[in-house]
C-alpha cells in the first residue's frame, strides 16, 4: 500500500506536459517585439493622419469655432442645424446616395467586360489594356475631357447627335438640373470601370476550371454555372468593388469640382464638395466638421452592411491549421 501510494505522484508528474522553457518565452517576446517595431511607423502615421484628425473633428463639431475668436461649447447645435434646418444638406445627401447607387451599375458593366476578356478571344490582352487605360488617367484630366464632351456648342456628344439628326441644337448637359448629375455619374463610371474589371478578372481566374467541367458533365447550362459557381466564388471581389464604389462616391471631389463645381445650384453637390464649400468658402468650419462626422458614420454603416451582405468575412485572413 505504501509503495503504491508513493508511486502515484511520480506517475502524475510523468503525465504532465513539460513546462515552457525560458528559451521559448524569450523567443516569443523577441518575435512580438519585432512585429510591433515593424508596425510602429505605420501605426504612428495612421494615428497622426487619421485618428487624431478624426478626434479633433468630432470635438470641433461640438463647438462654436472660428479662427478669430475663442471656441465655445455648442453641444449638438450643428447636428440639429444639419438635420432640421439645412435643406441643402438633404439635397446633397441624396445626391451622394444616388452617386453611390451607381456603383452596382459600373460593377455589372465591368463584370460583363471581365467575362468577355476572360474567354479565349484573339487579342484579349489588348482589350484588357484598352478598358483599363481609363483608370490611371488623373481625375482632373477625366473631368476636363468629359466637360469638353458635354459642351453645348463644341462638344463631341452634341456634335454626333446633331449630325445624326437626333437633336436640332446642343443640350446643356452640365447646366441642366436634371441631366448634370447623371452626366457626372457616367464620367465617374467610365473612369473606374477598368479598375473593377481587373479586380473581377482576378477573381474569375482564381476559380478552378474543374468546377465548370463537373457542372457541364452534370448538364448545367452556362447561366446555371454563372449563378451557382461564378457569382458565389467571386463574392469577395464583388465586395471589394462595392467598397471602392462607396469610397469613390465619398471622395469624388476632383471630378465634381472640375466638371460642375457642384452646380447648377446643388444639383451635383456631394457631401464632400458641400463640406468643402461650407468650410473654405463660408468659413463655417464647425458646421463642416459636423457634416464630416455624419459623412464618416454613413460610410462606416454602408461598409458594414456591404460586409454583412458579402457573408460577414470579406477581407478576413484565413489562418492555416
Description:
- The chain is mostly helical and 321 residues long.
- It has a domain at 87-309: MetI-like fold.
- 71% of the residues lie in helices and 3% in strands.
- It has 15 helices and 2 strands.
- The protein has helices spanning 2-15, 22-61, 77-85, 87-101, 103-117, 124-132, 139-149, 156-163, 180-205, 209-217, 222-233, 235-251, 253-259, 271-281, 285-309, and strands spanning 63-66, 69-73.
- Strands 1-2 form a two-stranded antiparallel ribbon.
- α4 (87-101) runs antiparallel to α12 (235-251), α7 packs parallel to α13 (253-259) and α9 runs antiparallel to α12 (235-251).
- The model has no long low-confidence stretch (mean pLDDT 84).
What's the SSE blueprint?
Blueprint: H1 2-15, H2 22-61, E1 63-66, E2 69-73, H3 77-85, H4 87-101, H5 103-117, H6 124-132, H7 139-149, H8 156-163, H9 180-205, H10 209-217, H11 222-233, H12 235-251, H13 253-259, H14 271-281, H15 285-309
Antiparallel strand pairs: 1-2
Helix pairs in contact: 2-15, 3-15, 4-12, 5-9, 7-13, 9-12, 12-15, 14-15
Concise account of the structure shown:
This protein is mainly alpha-helical. It is built from 15 helices and two strands. Helix 2 crosses helix 15, helix 3 crosses helix 15 (285-309) and helix 9 packs antiparallel against helix 12 (235-251).
Radius of gyration from CA coordinates: 28 Å
How many beta-strand runs? 2
Q: Describe the global form.
A: flat
- CATH architecture descriptor of the domain at 87-309: Orthogonal Bundle
- How many alpha or pi helices? 15
Strand order of the largest sheet: 1-2
- Tell me about the largest β-sheet: 2 strands, antiparallel
What structural class do the secondary elements suggest?
mainly alpha
Element string (H = helix, E = strand): HHEEHHHHHHHHHHHHH
Q: Give me the CATH fold name of the domain at 87-309.
A: MetI-like fold
Amino acid at each position: 500500500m505504501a509503495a503504491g501510494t508513493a508511486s502515484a505522484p511520480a506517475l502524475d508528474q510523468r503525465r504532465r506536459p513539460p513546462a515552457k522553457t525560458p528559451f521559448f518565452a524569450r523567443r516569443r517576446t523577441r518575435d512580438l517585439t519585432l512585429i510591433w517595431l515593424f508596425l510602429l511607423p505605420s501605426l504612428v502615421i495612421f494615428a497622426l493622419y487619421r485618428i487624431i484628425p478624426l478626434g479633433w473633428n468630432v470635438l470641433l463639431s461640438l463647438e462654436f469655432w472660428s479662427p478669430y475668436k475663442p471656441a465655445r461649447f455648442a453641444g449638438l447645435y450643428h447636428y440639429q442645424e444639419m438635420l432640421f434646418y439645412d435643406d441643402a444638406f438633404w439635397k446633397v445627401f441624396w445626391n451622394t446616395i444616388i452617386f453611390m447607387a451607381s456603383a452596382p451599375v459600373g460593377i455589372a458593366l465591368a463584370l460583363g467586360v471581365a467575362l468577355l476578356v476572360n474567354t479565349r478571344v484573339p487579342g484579349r490582352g489588348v482589350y484588357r489594356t484598352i478598358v483599363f487605360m481609363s483608370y490611371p488617367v488623373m481625375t482632373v484630366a477625366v473631368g476636363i475631357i468629359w466637360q469638353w464632351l458635354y459642351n453645348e456648342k463644341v462638344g463631341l456628344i452634341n456634335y454626333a447627335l446633331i449630325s445624326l439628326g437626333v437633336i436640332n441644337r446642343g443640350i446643356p448637359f452640365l447646366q441642366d438640373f436634371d441631366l448634370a448629375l447623371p452626366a457626372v455619374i457616367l464620367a465617374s463610371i467610365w473612369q473606374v470601370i477598368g479598375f473593377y474589371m481587373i479586380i473581377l478578372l482576378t477573381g474569375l481566374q482564381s476559380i478552378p476550371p474543374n468546377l465548370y467541367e463537373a457542372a457541364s458533365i452534370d448538364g448545367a447550362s452556362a447561366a446555371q454555372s454563372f449563378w451557382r459557381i461564378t457569382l458565389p466564388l467571386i463574392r469577395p471581389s464583388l465586395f471589394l468593388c462595392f467598397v471602392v464604389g462607396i469610397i469613390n462616391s465619398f471622395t469624388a471631389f476632383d471630378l465634381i469640382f472640375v466638371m460642375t463645381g457642384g452646380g447648377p445650384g446643388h444639383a451635383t453637390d456631394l457631401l464632400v464638395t458641400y463640406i468643402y464649400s461650407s468650410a473654405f468658402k463660408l468659413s463655417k468650419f464647425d458646421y463642416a466638421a459636423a457634416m464630416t462626422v455624419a459623412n464618416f458614420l454613413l460610410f462606416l454603416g454602408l461598409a458594414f452592411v456591404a460586409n454583412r451582405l458579402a457573408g460577414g468575412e470579406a477581407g478576413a485572413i484565413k489562418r492555416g491549421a
